[in-house]
C-alpha cells in the first residue's frame, strides 16, 4: 500500500516530468550533449521512487495459480463465490466445452462391470492353492492375466498394483483382494468422472478445479433419484426430498465448515459415497432379490440413502410444522420424538445453531428451524456414536465454550432430564448426585472434575452419555435396561 496519497504522488510525478523535460530541452543543451535515453529513464524512475516512498510490501511467495499466470476470473464476466450465479463469458464456454469433451472420452474408455466379470473368468484359470486354500496368484500369472484382459483394464493392472497388495510368505497375492481393489477403484473413478461431467456442465458457478458445490451435487443426486424405481413408483416429489437429504449428509460429514463446496476426491473416496452406491445398486434390483444390507462389510445402520428414509424424515418435519410455514418454531420442535428432548437442550440448540429468521408477520427476526437445519440435527442424533455427530451435540452442550463440562454443568443437564420425567408422569427416586457421578464414571475423564470432548471419544460411550443428558426417553431406557432385557428374553 502506498505511503502517500494519490494527489501527492501525482504532484511528485509531475515535478519529475518537468525536470525530465528541462534535461532534454534542445534549446538549453546541444544535440551532441544529450544523455542516452536509457539513462534518462533510469534516472527518472530513481527520482520518482525516492520521492514517493515505498509503494507496496514486496512479495516473495505466490500461489500456484498466480505463479503460472492462470486467473479463473476470465472465464466469467464477474467474480463469484460458491453458490453465486454468474454470466458466462467466452472463456468459460470454451473451457466448459473442452472439459465436457475430455470427461466424455474418459467415461467412454473406462472399464465396465462386464470387463470385471471377464477378468474374473480369466483369473480362475491361473488360481493356485496355498496350504490347501485356493485363491492365490503369483506375479508371473498376474502378468499373463494382464495380457489376456481387456485393453481398458491395462492402466489398472500394472506392476505397482501387485506390489501394493498384501502378499504371503511366497510373494503371492489373494485373488479376492485384487478383485475388491479393482471394483472399488473403478467405482471411485466412475464417480469422479460423473461428478466432473456434472461440474463441467454447470454454467453459473466458478469453482476451483477438483471441487463440486453442494448445489451442483444436489442437482446430480436429483437426476439419479428420478431413475430409481422406488422413487418413480412413489412420487416424483420424493426425488427432490431424496436429493436434499442425501446432499445434506455429504455436506455434514465432508464440509464441516459449511463452505458450500466439497473436494471431489474426498467425496468419492468416502464411505458415505460407498453407502450411496450400494443403496443405489440395491434399489435397481427387484424387491425379492435385494440382499440384506446387514450382510455387507461396511454396513450403514441408519440407511440414510434409502428413499423411504428420506420420506420418513420429511414426514416427521411436516408433522411438526403445524403452521405449514416450512419452518419450525422452538415450541413446535420441542414435540420431536414425543417431546423427549429436555427444555434446556432445546434452548441451547436455538442459542448455538445458526437458523434463518422467521418470515411471518409479527415475529420477524425470531429464529426458526428450516428443513436443512433439521436434517443437520437428525444426522447428529442418528450418528451420535461417530465423531462428527458427537461434536455437533457437544457444541450445543458446551454453550459457554469452556471446552469442558464440569459437575455443575452435568448437574444442570440431569436436573432438566428429571424435570422432563416429572412432566411425563414418571417418578424417579435416585439422588441427582449419584447420577452425576455415574456420568463421570462412564466418561472416565483425565480430570475427575470435568469432562472434555476427547474424554467422550476415548470412553467409546460418548453417544450414550450425551443421549442420557438430553433425552428423557433414552435416560429412562438406560435406567431400566435390565428390566427391558429380561422382558425381551
Task: Itemize the secondary structure elements and their pairings.
Layout: H1 6-23, H2 37-52, H3 64-67, H4 90-108, H5 113-123, E1 128-130, E2 133-137, H6 139-148, H7 159-164, E3 173-174, H8 175-200, E4 211-213, H9 214-225, H10 229-234, H11 237-254, E5 261-263, H12 264-268, H13 271-283, H14 307-320, H15 330-333, H16 343-352, H17 371-382, H18 387-397, E6 405-406, H19 407-423, H20 432-443, E7 450-451, H21 453-459, H22 462-470, H23 472-479, H24 481-488
Antiparallel strand pairs: 1-2, 2-3, 4-5, 6-7
Helix pairs in contact: 1-2, 4-8, 5-8, 9-11, 11-14, 11-17, 17-18, 19-20, 19-23, 22-23
Proportion in β-strands: under 5%
Largest sheet: 3 strands, antiparallel
- What share of the residues lie within helices? 55-70%
Overall strand count:
7
Distance between termini? 77 Å
Overall pLDDT metric: 80
Give a description of the structure.
The protein is mostly helical and 489 residues long. Helices cover 56% and strands 4% of the residues. It has 24 helices and seven strands. The protein has a three-stranded antiparallel beta sheet with strand order 1-2-3. A hairpin with a 2-residue loop joins β1 and β2. α19 crosses α23. About 8% of the residues have low confidence.
Highlighted features:
56% helix; three-stranded antiparallel sheet; two-stranded antiparallel ribbon; 24 helices; globular
Give a brief description:
The chain is 56% helix and 4% strand. The protein is mainly α and 489 residues long.
Amino acid at each position: 500500500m502506498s505511503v502517500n496519497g494519490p494527489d501527492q504522488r501525482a504532484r511528485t510525478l509531475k515535478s519529475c516530468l518537468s525536470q525530465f523535460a528541462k534535461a532534454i530541452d534542445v534549446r538549453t543543451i546541444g544535440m551532441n550533449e544529450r544523455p542516452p535515453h536509457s539513462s534518462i529513464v533510469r534516472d527518472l524512475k530513481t527520482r520518482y521512487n525516492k520521492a514517493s516512498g515505498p509503494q507496496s510490501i514486496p512479495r516473495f511467495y505466490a500461489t500456484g495459480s498466480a505463479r503460472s499466470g492462470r486467473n479463473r476470473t476470465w472465464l466469467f464476466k464477474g467474480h463469484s463465490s460458491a453458490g453465486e450465479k454468474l454470466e458466462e463469458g467466452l472463456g468459460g464456454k470454451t473451457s466448459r466445452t473442452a472439459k465436457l469433451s475430455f470427461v466424455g472420452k474418459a467415461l467412454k474408455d473406462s472399464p465396465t462391470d462386464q470387463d470385471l466379470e471377464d477378468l474374473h473368468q480369466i483369473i480362475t484359470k491361473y488360481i493356485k492353492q496355498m496350504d490347501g486354500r485356493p485363491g492365490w496368484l503369483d506375479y508371473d500369472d498376474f502378468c499373463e492375466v494382464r495380457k489376456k484382459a481387456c485393453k481398458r483394464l491395462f492402466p489398472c493392472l500394472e506392476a505397482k498394483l501387485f506390489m501394493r497388495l498384501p502378499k504371503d510368505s511366497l510373494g503371492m497375492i489373494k485373488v479376492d483382494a485384487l478383485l475388491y481393489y479393482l471394483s472399488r477403484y473403478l467405482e471411485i473413478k466412475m464417480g469422479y468422472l460423473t461428478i466432473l461431467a456434472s461440474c463441467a456442465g454447470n454454467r453459473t458457478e466458478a469453482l476451483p478445479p477438483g471441487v463440486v458445490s453442494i448445489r451442483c451435487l444436489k442437482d446430480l443426486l436429483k437426476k439419479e433419484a428420478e431413475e430409481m424405481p422406488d422413487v418413480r413408483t412413489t412420487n416424483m416429489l420424493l426425488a427432490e426430498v431424496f436429493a436434499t437429504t442425501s446432499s445434506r449428509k455429504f455436506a455434514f460429514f465432508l464440509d464441516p465448515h459449511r463452505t458450500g463446496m466439497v473436494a471431489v476426491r474426498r467425496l468419492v473416496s468416502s464411505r458415505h459415497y460407498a453407502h450411496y452406491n450400494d443403496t443405489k445398486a440395491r434399489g435397481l434390483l427387484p424387491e425379492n432379490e435385494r440382499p440384506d444390507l446387514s450382510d455387507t462389510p461396511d454396513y450403514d445402520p441408519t440407511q440414510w440413502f434409502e428413499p423411504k428414509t428420506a420420506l420418513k424424515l420429511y414426514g416427521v418435519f411436516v408433522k411438526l410444522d403445524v403452521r405449514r410455514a416450512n419452518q419450525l418454531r422452538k415450541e413446535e420442535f420441542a414435540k420431536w420424538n414425543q417431546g423427549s428432548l429436555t427444555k434446556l437442550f432445546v434452548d441451547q440448540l436455538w442459542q448455538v445453531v445458526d437458523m434463518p429468521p422467521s418470515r411471518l408477520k409479527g415475529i420477524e427476526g425470531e429464529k426458526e428451524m428450516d428443513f436443512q437445519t433439521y436434517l443437520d440435527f437428525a444426522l447428529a442424533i442418528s450418528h451420535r456414536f461417530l465423531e462428527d455427530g458427537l461434536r455437533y451435540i457437544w457444541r450445543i452442550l458446551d454453550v459457554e465454550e469452556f471446552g469442558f463440562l464440569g459437575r455443575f454443568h452435568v448437574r444442570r443437564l440431569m436436573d432438566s432430564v428429571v424435570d422432563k420425567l416429572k412432566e411425563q408422569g414418571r417418578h424417579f427416586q435416585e439422588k441427582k448426585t449419584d447420577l452425576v457421578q455415574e456420568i463421570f464414571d462412564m466418561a472416565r475423564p483425565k480430570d475427575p472434575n470435568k469432562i472434555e470432548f476427547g474424554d467422550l471419544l476415548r470412553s467409546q460411550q460418548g453417544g450414550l452419555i450425551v443421549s442420557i443428558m438430553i433425552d428423557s426417553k433414552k435416560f429412562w431406557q438406560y435406567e431400566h435396561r435390565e428390566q427391558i432385557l429380561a422382558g425381551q428374553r
